[in-house]
């Protein structure tokens, strides 16, 4: 396992959390409509794309931490790949929506959200099983995305804030874990 990839993933998770909080603030100040035609909507979408890219790097950090762990296995790899594919498609459709009408891509975005849901749940269960990250990271991966959808009915930026909680927690856990991995790797081997 590469401690630098784990640390980069942790930093990306923290960055994703900050960007998601920023996007929630932007959405509250100037609510985003369907068509992008104001500077605040362009800024909101650009921040969202950067948050999705940072999230992908955070998932890569999770995968790097767990690579080689027998409890992670092919199910963990599948969860990582599905989650990354979902976030990549969401990022791409968000980027496209900045230059062209988004309505025809709504079905694609819904499919990508399904990938994020399936991948996140699978990855969360595997994190709980592997026990390399704190248990709440696995639980947040399982519940944050679906809960965010329903929480948006109460507060329009609730999903962004729940996802910020998720990726910030994962990011902090990965940074701490990456530092411990680096310390272990730099210690000389003891001979008996």
Q: How many beta-strand elements? A: 0
Helix and strand run = HHHHHH
Which oligomeric form is depicted?
Answer: single chain
Q: How many domains make up the 3D coordinates?
A: 1
Q: SS-based structural class?
A: mainly alpha
Q: What would the average pLDDT be, to the nearest integer?
A: 88
Biggest sheet, in brief? none
Low-confidence stretches: none
- Compute the gyration radius: what is it? 17 Å
How much helix is in the residues? over 70%
Report the total helices.
6
Which outline best applies? globular
Ends apart, CA distance between termini: 26 Å
Percentage of residues in strands: under 5%
What are the main properties of this structure?
79% helix; globular; 192 residues; single chain; 6 helices; mainly alpha
Give a description of the structure:
The chain is 79% helix and 0% strand. It has one domain (3-183). It starts with a helix and ends in a 6-residue tail after the last helix. The mean pLDDT is 88. It is mainly α and 192 residues long. 42% of the residues are buried. It contains six helices and no strands.
């Amino acid at each position: 396992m590469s401690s630098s990839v784990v640390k980069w993933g942790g930093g990306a998770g923290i960055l994703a959390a900050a960007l998601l909080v920023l996007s929630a603030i932007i959405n509250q100040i100037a609510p985003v409509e369907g068509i992008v035609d104001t500077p605040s909507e362009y800024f909101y979408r650009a921040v969202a794309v950067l948050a999705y890219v940072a999230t992908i790097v955070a998932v890569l950090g999770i995968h790097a931490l767990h690579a080689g762990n027998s409890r992670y296995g092919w199910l963990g790899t599948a969860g990582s790949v599905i989650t990354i594919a979902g976030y990549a498609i969401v990022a791409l459709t968000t980027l496209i929506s900045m230059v062209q009408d988004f309505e025809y891509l709504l079905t694609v975005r819904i499919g990508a959200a399904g990938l994020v849901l399936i991948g996140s749940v699978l990855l969360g269960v595997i994190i709980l099983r592997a026990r390399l990250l704190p248990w709440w990271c696995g639980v947040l991966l399982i519940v944050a995305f679906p809960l965010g959808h329903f929480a948006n009915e109460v507060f329009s930026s609730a999903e962004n804030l729940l996802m910020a909680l998720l990726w910030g927690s994962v990011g902090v856990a990965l940074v701490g874990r990456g530092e411990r991995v680096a310390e272990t790797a730099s210690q000389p081997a003891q001979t008996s």
